[in-house]
Structures are given as C-alpha cells and as structure tokens.
Amino acid sequence: MKTEQSQTVRIIPKQVSELTEISTYQYIGASLDSCHTIKTIAVLDFESYNISDEESKILTERLRSELIKNYIFNIIERSKMEEVLDEQGFQLSGCTSDECVIEVGKLLGASHMIAGSIGYIGSTYSVNSRLIDVESGKILESWIEDCKGKIDELLSVNMRRLAQKISGITSEK
Which stretches within the chain are classed as H helix? Predict the structure, then answer.
C-alpha cells in the first residue's frame, strides 16, 4: 500500500509581474502541493500632520518595502498605482476619506487597502494605519506605532515593526 508524503519546502519569493500588469509577489507555502495566492493590497501615501509631505511619502514607501519583504501580501507598487489611476483620470492627492480609498482600491483591483497618517506632536511621532476591505468597505483592523526618538528611528525601526504587525508577524523588542 502506497502512502503519500508531503515534502516541506522553504518559503520562496517569486515575482509574478509577467502574469499581471500590477507587480505582485507570491510565495510557495509549506508543502509542494499547496501554492498560496495571497491578498492584493495597495498602500496609499499616509497623510502628514506636522511633518513634511516628503517625509510622509518616504516613511510610507518604507512601509511598502517592509511589507514586500514579509512575503505575506501582494503589494501594488506606487508607480503602478499612479499609472493605473492616471489612465482612469483619478488623482490620489486629497484622497483621504474611506470612501475615496475604497474607490481607489476597486480601480486598482486590490482586495484591501492600507491608509493612515503620520504626525508629530511634542516629541513623539505617531503612525496610525488601518486595513480596509475594498469589497465591504469595513475597516478590518487598525494599528498605532509611536516613536519618541528621531525620525530616523521611526524610519528604520518603527516602520518595520508596523509592517510586522500588519503582516501578523511577532517580533521581540
């Protein structure tokens, strides 16, 4: 009598942009017979409060990069987001309401959107983010990441920690 065995393999990132116009990433799961397609997420540039728009864009881009490194989600690249939205005649600037975020998500073909804000008050930077289901319009989860250090620490430590929280990865302090 033959028994089937499942082989364990390492997680292997594989760019699959040749399959779609939007660059995405895919990973192969724990067994050879289980290939997982993961949720497609777009991360909108976070609103800025008491920091420059450029700093907010840099911090948001770091969050995107950290999310990509986690291989949990398909992340739509910012340049591809702008390209698709330009073709539709849609402007990202000023898109801050959840309704606008959902509309952008539908245009991009994303299942979920991440939106939020980055602010500075007193001596603390605060990043507020939320995960929105494009189909239902519901906010599924929100995260806050505070940093009492310099913006450099927010960039190099806290944005990675936020990406780990969003990805469901636990990390030690």
Answer: 53-70, 78-87, 98-108, 151-153, 159-167
